[in-house]
Design a protein that fits this description.
Helix content: 10-25%
Number of strands: 17
Shape: globular
Structural class: alpha+beta
CATH superfamily: FAD/NAD(P)-binding domain
Oligomer: single chain
Number of helices: 11
Distance between the termini: 25 Å
Order of helices and strands: EHEHHHHEHEEEEEHEEEHEEEHEEEHH
Length: 522
């Protein structure tokens, strides 16, 4: 791209949504520049290493949080560098169900989306055909209408077969976990090796991360990607419209003018940028006339179950996401006073330590006791994780801290509390998980502490400006040429992995922007 050319679109963040927007807009003839704070990862930068996996995750600047508040595991759901979190996420890709979009209308809980499942369905279909999902739609009795998966499900190893036995004995349905990982050659990409290193990236390209999908397509269409460019503010003109961004590169402060600005950073960084972009016309922060920038930040409460079996579990084989899926509805006679949908991810591949580690499942053991446990668990341990959906709470939010990063930008400050209902649903999952493990034949069953899961909210979409930050296409109500992307747009979740829906929403929004380009420039 010629340095003197006017920029049509600047995109902040080279993750899932940012890369998709760049590919679609560049193909439509727009001049696109993507600014990414992290490094320019390539496939041959990826190594099957637990230490390496940590480098792919966003850990700086710090997220400030008052002591004594609920844990908020944001680093495992965020990323740094080209590909963002989608470079290392586990690739669990279920669809949201129709009821997930209408929690307020159907159940009197939480918030409704401004769009419905049927509006998003064709974009789910389009994305899965392009990127490839392995699964079995017929076995997913909870799956809404849509095209069947383009690839057959992955092989099941002993860990999954044992745990499926437990679910079946309790009358609970399971199905192959739908994942964005090749079970056969697809679009020229190799099939999975089942060595369980998804968290560290996938150097063979079996995992459809942005490096092998939209980032490459965007470059081929003419989009420019710039690494180590930390955006600090969205700039506005005298009329209050977005005019570009301010960023820091190699220690120098720079500006980039653009007709349209798209913020596709994380659900922490997007609110942080908007709040730090306050101006005379936008005194409370950009796109914040509702006072909701940063609000309704929501995370699942994760229940982790472990079981030791006499049988060998082959727990080193498979993918990090797991091999089977089971989903629970928002309401159930089994828990009449506890609201919330949830999902079980069953039989993930395990490593010696770190996030899905065998050793870390028993942090109370040391020395010879730990060695003995490891020798047995390496062949006989099984695990699964239940994701309890939370009701969005306006008070769970991001604000700006007094402390600043190395660029002088205020850090994000988090206020977050796990609601009583979320804790009750988490406890229910612990009970159900223990029952499953025992029914499966586990000789010893134990649980881990509550962990934070998938992140949504912070810049929610809605039909009106008073109760949301942006519309159903991510276009901010206050600034017509400022667009938001990512799972921060979600008004509500369902204990379900958000990345597939993130892609479908971005695909729908990018299509709208291209078709109605003139409206974004008014």
């Amino acid at each position: 791209m010629n340095a003197n050319q006017a920029i049509d679109v600047v995109i902040v963040g080279a993750g899932a949504a940012g890369s998709l927007y760049a590919a679609r807009l560049a193909k439509a003839g727009k001049r696109v520049v993507v600014l990414e704070a992290g490094p320019a990862w390539k496939l041959d930068d990826l190594y099957s290493s637990q230490i390496w996996a940590r480098r792919l995750k966003w850990s700086s600047p710090l997220l400030m949080q008052p002591p004594g508040q609920s844990a908020f595991s944001h680093t495992q759901s965020t990323g740094t560098g080209f590909g963002g979190a989608a470079l290392h996420h586990f690739g669990t890709w279920p669809r949201l169900r129709p009821a997930d979009f209408r929690n307020r209308t159907l159940f009197g809980k939480g918030l409704d989306w401004p769009i419905r499942y049927e509006e998003l369905r064709p974009y789910y279909d389009r994305i899965q055909a392009e990127m490839g999902i392995a699964g079995d739609a017929r076995q997913e009795v909870w799956r809404p209408k849509g095209a069947p998966y383009p690839m057959p499900p992955h092989k099941l190893f002993n860990q999954a077969k044992l745990l499926a036995r437990g679910f079946s004995k309790l009358g609970l349905k399971t199905a192959p976990l739908p994942v964005i990982i090749n079970s056969k050659v697809y679009n020229g990409r190799a099939p999975c090796l089942y060595d369980g290193w998804c968290e560290a990236g996938c150097p063979i390209g079996a995992f459809a991360n942005p490096l092998v999908t939209h980032l490459d397509a965007a470059r081929q269409a003419g989009a420019e990607f710039r690494e180590h460019c930390s955006v600090t503010r969205v700039l506005t003109d005298k009329t209050g419209r977005a005019s570009g961004v301010e960023y820091v590169s190699q220690g120098k402060k720079e500006t980039l003018d653009a007709r349209v600005v798209i913020l596709a950073a994380s659900m922490v960084q997007n609110p942080r940028l908007l709040l730090n972009s306050a101006s005379e016309r936008h005194s409370q922060g950009l796109a914040n006339s509702s006072g909701l920038v940063g609000a309704y930040l929501t995370t699942d409460a994760v229940a982790i179950l472990y079981g030791m079996f006499d049988e060998e579990t082959e727990n080193h084989m498979g993918v990090n996401a797991g091999q089977l899926l089971s989903r629970g509805d928002h309401v159930s006679k089994k828990r009449p006073d506890v609201f919330g949908a949830y999902q079980w991810q069953i039989a993930p591949s395990l490593k010696p330590n770190d996030l899905l580690g065998i050793a870390t499942s028993r942090a109370d053991l040391f020395g010879n006791e730990l060695h003995g446990f490891m020798r047995k668990a390496a062949k006989h341990l099984a695990s699964m994780a239940g994701f309890a959906g939370a009701i969005p709470d306006r008070d769970n939010r991001i604000t700006l801290a007094k402390e600043t990063d190395q660029h002088g930008m205020p850090l994000a400050r988090l206020n977050y509390r796990v609601a009583d209902n979320t804790r009750a649903l988490w406890n229910y999952l612990l009970e159900e998980g223990r029952a499953v493990m025992k029914a499966a034949g586990a000789k010893d069953v134990w649980t881990g502490p509550m962990a934070g899961g998938h992140l949504i909210g912070g810049t929610i979409m809605g039909a009106v400006a008073k109760t949301s930050v942006c519309d159903g296409y991510g276009r901010t109500h206050d600034v017509p040429n400022l667009v938001l992307a990512g799972s921060g747009l979600f008004p509500a979740g369902s204990g379900s992995s958000p990345t597939y829906t993130l892609y479908a929403v971005a695909e729908r929004s990018a299509e709208h922007m291209i078709k109605h380009w003139g409206e974004y420039l008014r």
